[in-house]
């Protein structure tokens, strides 16, 4: 790991340097553990920063914890005595419940913090908040509007920072999606994902990681709602590197053609309410229906990160046997639990590693 020490010193980020040195030593030399992957002390801001084998490790740990805790009823106090600061600028069902219950299952204490509870960026700078929380808690999960605020938290904190959602990325959602698909299909390699909807943060997360598993990606977005050009460039580079196919179109049926997995999300995210009528007009024809599914692969499935609105997908598809949305929602719990265990402990999965 190469560090730009000049920029770090110029910014006066002594805490951040110490944090990076710990990460560097762990990644180069590791620590005594059965697993070859060592993520303890790392941040999770985007899956772009994670190698394929590191993402595989998180999914393996999630499968392992799900089996041991849910099915075998094991008690695993891995986070006994540890606390988690949960900063929520945006409301949530799945992120909050999965994180709180997952951290508590491992014996830790989650602290839920909204903007009404703390001074983040209002009466106290993000920098000062990060430094204070670093002295009182063991990790931070932040669900924020701006990716830049998340990066500032990570820059100033001396403890792991997890992206619970930002305007740019939603990595913990995509981990749950991949775990769900691995459970259903037995492997991720060779699957074709079809995204039909907005070029948003969830799509960014898929584009920054799908090729690492050998998955092709078809994307249909209306004109004016395409993915970020920078993300497209990165995804194209990944597609060449991992020999996968990346296809972008404005035609939903073209994107769905031959796809194993049909995926969509809300067309109107929090903070975009004023654009509702404009967006509903732009997305006409993008609702996923059984007509869409007819051109997909025979083994098609459907994913949606929720909450869902009927204009995005009709009831026939959403509540069909091919819909994996509730399994996907549950897996938010097991993947975030695995992330927290991996970033805060030397946890090594006991189950045999699944095929990815």
TrEMBL record:
Domain Aspartate/ornithine carbamoyltransferase carbamoyl-P binding: 43-183
Subcellular location: Mitochondrion matrix
Major location category of this protein: mitochondrion
UniProt keyword terms in alphabetical order: Amino-acid biosynthesis, Arginine biosynthesis, Mitochondrion, Transferase, Transit peptide, Urea cycle
Cleaved signal peptide residues: none
Gene3D superfamilies: Aspartate/ornithine carbamoyltransferase
Pathway: Nitrogen metabolism; urea cycle; L-citrulline from L-ornithine and carbamoyl phosphate: step 1/1
GO molecular-function terms, A-Z: amino acid binding; ornithine carbamoyltransferase activity
Any single biological process term in GO: ammonium homeostasis
Entry-linked InterPro entries: Asp/Orn_carbamoyltranf_P-bd (IPR006132), Asp/Orn_carbamoylTrfase (IPR006130), Asp/Orn_carbamoylTrfase_sf (IPR036901), Asp_carbamoyltransf_Asp/Orn-bd (IPR006131), Orn/put_carbamltrans (IPR002292)
EC number(s) on file: 2.1.3.3
Domain Aspartate/ornithine carbamoyltransferase Asp/Orn-binding, residue spans: 189-342
GO cellular component term of the entry, any: mitochondrial matrix
Family: Belongs to the aspartate/ornithine carbamoyltransferase superfamily. OTCase family.
Subunit structure: Homotrimer.
Protein name in the entry: ornithine carbamoyltransferase
Organism phylogeny: Eukaryota, Metazoa, Chordata, Craniata, Vertebrata
Gene that this polypeptide is encoded by: OTC
């Amino acid at each position: 790991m190469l560090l730009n020490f000049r920029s770090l010193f110029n910014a006066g980020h002594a805490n951040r340097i110490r944090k990076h040195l710990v990460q560097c030593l762990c990644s180069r030399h590791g620590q005594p553990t059965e697993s070859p992957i060592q993520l303890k002390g790392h941040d999770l801001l985007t899956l772009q920063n994670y190698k394929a084998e590191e993402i595989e490790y998180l999914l393996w740990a999630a499968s392992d914890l799900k089996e041991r805790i849910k099915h075998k009823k094991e008690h695993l106090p891995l986070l006994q005595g540890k606390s988690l600061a949960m900063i929520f600028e945006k409301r949530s069902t799945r992120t909050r419940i999965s994180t709180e219950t997952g951290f508590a299952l491992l014996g830790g204490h989650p602290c839920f913090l909204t903007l009404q509870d703390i001074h983040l960026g209002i009466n106290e700078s993000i920098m000062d908040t990060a430094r204070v929380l670093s002295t009182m808690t063991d990790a931070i999960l932040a669900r924020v509007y701006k990716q830049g605020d998340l990066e500032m938290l990570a820059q100033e904190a001396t403890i792991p920072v997890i992206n619970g959602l930002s305007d740019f990325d939603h990595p913990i959602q995509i981990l749950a999606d991949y775990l769900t698909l691995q459970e259903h299909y037995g492997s991720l390699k060779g699957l074709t994902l079809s995204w039909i909807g907005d070029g948003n943060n969830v799509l960014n997360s898929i584009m920054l990681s799908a090729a690492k598993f050998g998955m092709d990606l078809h994307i249909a977005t209306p004109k004016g709602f395409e993915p970020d050009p920078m993300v497209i460039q990165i995804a194209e580079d990944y597609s060449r590197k991992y020999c996968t196919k990346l296809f972008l179109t404005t035609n939903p049926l073209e994107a769905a053609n031959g796809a194993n997995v049909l995926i969509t999300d809300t067309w109107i995210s929090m903070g975009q309410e004023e654009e509702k009528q404009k967006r509903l007009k732009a997305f006409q024809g993008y609702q996923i229906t059984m007509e869409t599914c007819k051109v997909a692969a025979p083994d098609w499935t459907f994913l949606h990160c929720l909450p869902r609105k009927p204009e995005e997908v009709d009831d026939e598809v959403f509540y069909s046997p091919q819909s994996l949305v509730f399994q996907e929602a549950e897996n938010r719990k097991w993947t975030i639990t695995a992330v927290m265990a991996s970033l805060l402990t030397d946890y090594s999965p006991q189950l045999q590693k699944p095929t990815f």
